[in-house]
Design brief:
The strands form five sheets. This protein has an eight-stranded mixed beta sheet, with helices on both faces. It has a five-stranded parallel beta sheet with strand order 10-2-1-14-23, covered by helices on one side. A four-stranded antiparallel beta sheet has the order 5-9-6-18, with helices on one face. The radius of gyration is 24 Å and the shape is globular. Helices cover 36% and strands 21% of the residues. It has three domains: 11-48 and 276-352 and 503-552, FAD/NAD(P)-binding domain (3-Layer(bba) Sandwich); 52-109 and 354-501, Polyamine Oxidase, Chain A, domain 2 (Alpha-Beta Complex); 140-230, protoporphyrinogen ix oxidase, domain 3 (Orthogonal Bundle), CATH 1.10.3110.10. The longest helix is centred in the last third of the chain and has 16 residues, at 444-459. It has 553 residues and is of the alpha/beta class. The structure holds ligand LM7OVKF4. Residues 49, 71-74, 76, 186-188, 190, 357, 380, 396-397, 399, 430, 433, 536-537 line the site of the ligand C=Cc1c2[nH]c(c1C)Cc1[nH]c(c(CCC(=O)O)c1C)Cc1[nH]c(c(C)c1CCC(=O)O)Cc1[nH]c(c(C)c1C=C)C2.
Length: 553
């Protein structure tokens, strides 16, 4: 989408002070210090879905800090957005907060739940791949024939289809999607492979089929071509164009080429005081800029993309040279003009469903929560046969937060940070997602019963021996918790309603239609966030912010 550059001393509105809006404001304030930036946020805090809940355990001199991540918690090591985040934190003198996990760290072991064999390690080498196939019971004649026949199956149509339909077409069986791919999708968008789009979620697989007639033949051809291309890739090729411009105009000392090589060693990055440290640091910086203004608890009732105007609940209207929004499809539909020019956009927005996630953080001072033989990042749950009986608890996955924390080291010094105590364990359970769209959302008390059942079913916790302390985090202002003993289990829960958009079949068309209509109308609107931004991850939001700021420059 082409965007007009902002006139001298112009005005830009940023709707949403999540990581998307903050990043855009950060880059734009650096590129165009003359531009006035008004940030409108409906809550009284910044960060959006990134929320590191800071609790205090014990009292007086015995007080210890306990952080529960309520949303994203780690960043992929290798991605343009992560390079930007690391460099911004360095610029803001927060580099000491950055921690990394090495490839060989125990925390980098990932697991998947198998219907018959329990928690199994996800393969990280060719050898462990075959071990996994055998152990998981996936290695059956259906899959073997499916893989052998794949190179010879007819190429399908270029149009969009569901992930399930694509895999079934290519392999003649649903065994891979039911047992593996669905688990990965649960861990990324909490969505169902029966509806998620292959063109959006796995564009490279579809491309391999279209270009080479087969995924396997395409992979072999690509591997052969990249072998021939030799090892030494030019440093510039490691750094996308937008990042080269970032280095040129914003951070000349960033050395992103070197940083990109060094970050390849780390599959995961986190911040020692919680991921909210990133939006909080950017906010701290922006709040000091004369031309940047934050408007909290703002209530927007109308947005006109052609006029560049925003109307508020108190009937006041403000006009801007550009508006960037990270609002959800539902909110956007409500505030767009009521004229027929927006009918097609509204139909596209209505085609994008959202899912809710019941997120449960659990802490105990004893190390009992994580199974002895399964230390690592956590485990994901596949949809298996897809009916309610195969996953009656509607569990999507479990993250072993304390393993990640205990195995991370400070990026610059490789030192470990002090922990709340050595023996503690902390995990996060994620439940619901697409299942909540098919079945209704259980009450909190029903969900907590399910959580206790899950602790006993998968994590060998004898729930009768423990005292449970429950916190409905959204309703509690007091963040102080008394001293916890070895027999206490603290459970803090939140229902994140409609938190993740689903990139279902037709999503790319819905996005193109919307952007096309807005372009024809000469609109002054651009998108951040997960609706029509660059993707669902935190690094995607930051690189999208940079791309837009460069266009508005
Ligand atoms: C709050 C729930 C979220 C779920 N997925 C995301 C969020 C914010 C976004 C997301 N998670 C991952 C990716 C891919 C890698 C990346 O781009 O960073 C994305 C886009 C991987 C991932 N999945 C889980 C974790 C902890 C991570 C690492 C990144 C992060 O901290 O978010 C676990 C997990 N996430 C979700 C579920 C249901 C789940 C299950 C255990 C939904």
């Amino acid at each position: 989408m082409s965007l007009a550059s902002i006139p001298s001393n112009g005005k830009v509105a940023v709707i949403g002070a999540g990581v998307s809006g903050l990043s855009l404001a950060y880059f734009l304030s650096k590129l165009r210090p003359d531009v006035n930036i008004e940030i409108f946020e409906k809550e009284s805090r910044v960060g959006g879905w990134i929320k590191s809940e800071n609790l205090q355990i014990g009292s007086g001199s015995q007080t210890q800090k306990l952080i529960f991540e309520k949303g994203p918690r780690t960043l992929r090591g290798v991605s343009p957005g992560t390079l930007l985040i690391v460099d911004i934190l360095k610029q803001l003198n927060k580099a000491a907060e950055i921690e990394v996990i090495t490839k060989t760290s125990p925390a980098n072991k990932k697991y998947i739940l198998s219907e018959s064999r329990g928690i199994l390690q996800v393969p990280d080498s060719i050898g462990s791949f075959f071990k996994f196939l055998f152990n998981s019971g996936l290695f059956n004649s259906q899959l073997v024939f499916g893989i052998l026949k794949e190179p010879f199956r007819k190429k399908g149509p270029a149009g969009d289809e569901s992930i399930d339909s694509f895999f079934l077409r290519r392999f003649g069986t649903g065994v891979l999607t039911n047992n593996v791919v669905s688990a990965v999708m649960h861990g990324i968008v909490a969505g169902d492979t029966a509806h998620l789009s292959i063109n959006t979620m796995f564009p490279k697989l579809k491309q391999l089929e279209q270009e080479h007639g087969s995924i396997i033949r395409g992979m072999v051809a690509r591997a052969w071509a990249s072998r021939k291309k030799a090892q030494e890739v030019l440093a510039d090729e490691n750094v996308p164009k937008a990042l080269q411009l970032y280095e040129k105009y914003i951070s000349p000392e960033a050395h992103l080429d070197k940083m990109s090589i060094s970050l390849k060693k780390y599959p995961m990055i986190r911040l020692n005081d919680g991921l909210e440290g990133f939006p909080a640091s950017v906010y701290e910086y922006l709040a000091q800029q004369k031309k940047v203004n934050f408007n909290f608890n703002s209530d927007i009732v109308a947005l006109d993309p052609e006029k560049g105007s925003i109307t508020f609940k108190n009937s006041s209207t403000a006009v801007f040279d550009h508006i960037n929004t990270s609002t959800s499809a539902n909110v956007l539909t409500k505030i767009l003009p009521k004229t027929s020019a927006y009918d097609e956009v509204k139909r596209s927005l209505a085609s994008i469903p959202y899912v809710s996630v019941f997120l449960v953080n659990i802490y105990t001072p004893s190390g009992k929560l994580i199974p002895k033989n399964n230390h690592g990042f956590g485990f994901l749950v596949p949809k298996l046969s897809g009916n309610i009986d195969s996953n009656p608890d509607l569990l999507l996955g479990v993250i072993f937060d304390s393993d990640v924390e205990k195995n991370s080291v400070q990026m610059s010094t490789f030192a470990t940070s002090p922990h709340i105590n050595e023996g503690y364990s902390k995990i996060t359970l994620m439940m619901g997602g697409h299942y909540y769209n098919d079945f209704s959302i259980p009450s909190n008390s029903r969900n907590l019963k399910i959580v206790k059942g899950l602790l006993s079913k998968y994590l060998d916790i004898d729930i009768d021996n423990y005292n449970f302390i429950l916190r409905d985090e959204a309703t509690l202002d007091d963040k102080k918790i008394g001293l916890l003993t070895e027999n206490d289990i603290l459970i803090s829960y939140n229902l994140h309603e409609k938190c993740i958009p689903q990139y279902t079949v037709g999503y790319n068309e819905a996005k193109e239609t919307t952007l096309g209509v807005l372009e024809k109308l000469n609109s002054k609107l651009s998108f951040g966030g997960t609706l029509f931004g660059a993707g669902i991850g935190v690094p995607d939001a930051v690189s999208n912010g940079l791309e837009i700021a460069l266009k508005l420059k």
